[in-house]
Design brief:
370 residues; alpha/beta; 16% strand; oxidoreductase
Length: 370
């Protein structure tokens, strides 16, 4: 396992992502409108690039609670205000999309951004499955839709002209799909929650693997990461072709107490109004919230030092090479988002990279790479 961990520590990437959720402020009760939200998203992406982060992502939901329903459109706007940062979906609900049109959209984004576009494809979060009925699909076809469409998307990525036949879209006969991305292919990742079969599928297909790790102990993902790498190796892919990313919720402040105090009202707001956990028995208490931010748990709320500790713990378990945080759930004001982005880039990122590179150097010396 040595060579893949070595490469990962030397090229560990950091980023931020958002779904653009729309909620009333838990303190003032004031709503945020979609226009303001989108403007703040563009500003956050600009800041992320300015402070040196590597990736900016946009998730996708199709309800009135979210400002981002068309990630490639918003990412194209961001592309005109940035020059270096990678621009990815996080996640595209591929099961309810047309792979041909999706590829056209992101290939166009890739050209506009000078080769910075990526796609993270998934089946859709179980809490937001209304997307299926909205676009005329049956939830009963949940896995079959994704299986067919990821196959077609990968086929398009490899072939400018193709013939194809499936169950859920019209046949393609020597069809040309254009434009083509700047580098010839788009980087493709598969988004996975906690399903072993999905992780193995990503390995067999040779895509990147992105874990949505919003709660719990990341050690639970280790069997999935191992299965992904094993399936990829069996399919003939090298470790460098099998990157792993972790996405999660977080908030960073100068001190642990400040982070907890500022973030908790918005975290609770998100679960009450977006996740519809309005029954008092389902609501997360302050005590439960604080426990969920511990070093061995996924929720990344705390001081920069605590976030460093959390990422290093996760890397010890999973060996990932990319870490992306959602910092704005529940209506967190832009000022808090901006400060978190700056702390992530200036206080967390350099320490994590230094620690991982030192561990790599030690491993080279004594042959005990993690």
């Amino acid at each position: 396992m040595g060579s893949d961990r070595e490469e990962q520590s030397l090229s560990f990437e950091f980023g931020v992502y958002t779904f653009g959720d729309l909620t009333n402020d838990p303190h003032s009760g004031r709503p945020i409108n979609a226009k303001q939200r989108l403007e703040e998203i563009v500003a956050a992406a600009q800041l992320a690039e300015e402070v040196g982060l590597d990736v900016f992502g946009l998730g996708e939901h199709h309800t009135p609670n979210f400002a981002v329903t068309a990630p490639p459109v918003v990412l194209a706007a961001i592309a005109r205000h940035t020059k270096r940062i990678k621009l990815t979906s996080a996640t595209t609900v591929l099961s309810t999309a047309d792979p041909v049109r999706l590829y056209e959209d992101f290939a166009t984004l890739d050209l506009l951004s000078d080769g910075r576009a990526e796609i993270i494809a998934g089946r859709g979060a179980m809490a937001f499955l209304d997307t299926y009925s909205l676009f005329g699909y049956e939830l009963a076809d949940y896995d079959e839709l994704f299986q067919e469409k990821i196959g077609l998307l990968l086929h398009i990525n490899e072939n400018e002209r193709l013939s194809w036949n499936g169950r859920f879209r019209p046949e393609l006969i020597e069809a040309g799909v254009a434009p083509r991305p700047l580098g010839g292919k788009l980087p493709l990742w598969i988004g996975v929650g906690r399903t072993l079969e999905s992780a193995e599928r990503a390995g067999r297909l040779g895509t990147g693997l992105t874990f949505a790790q919003l709660s719990g102990d990341p050690s639970r993902l280790k069997p999935l990461a191992d299965a992904y790498r094993a399936a990829g190796k069996a399919a003939g892919y090298t470790p460098e072709q099998l990157p792993i990313a972790i996405c999660g919720h977080g908030y960073i402040a100068p001190t642990p107490r400040q982070a907890l105090d500022e973030y908790f009202p918005y975290h609770a707001n998100y679960f009450e109004h977006i996740m519809q956990k309005r029954n008092p028995a389902e609501r997360l208490s302050r005590e439960e919230f604080e426990l969920s931010t511990g070093a061995s748990f996924a929720l990344a709320v705390g001081s920069p030092e605590q976030i460093v500790e959390k990422i290093l713990y996760q890397h010890e378990q999973i060996g990932h090479s990319r870490y992306i945080l959602q910092l704005d759930i529940g209506g967190v004001p832009y000022a808090g988002v901006a400060r978190s982005i700056e702390l992530l880039a200036t206080k967390v990122m350099p320490v994590v990279r230094r620690e991982l590179n030192q561990a790599t150097t030690v491993g080279k010396t004594d042959g005990s790479l993690r």
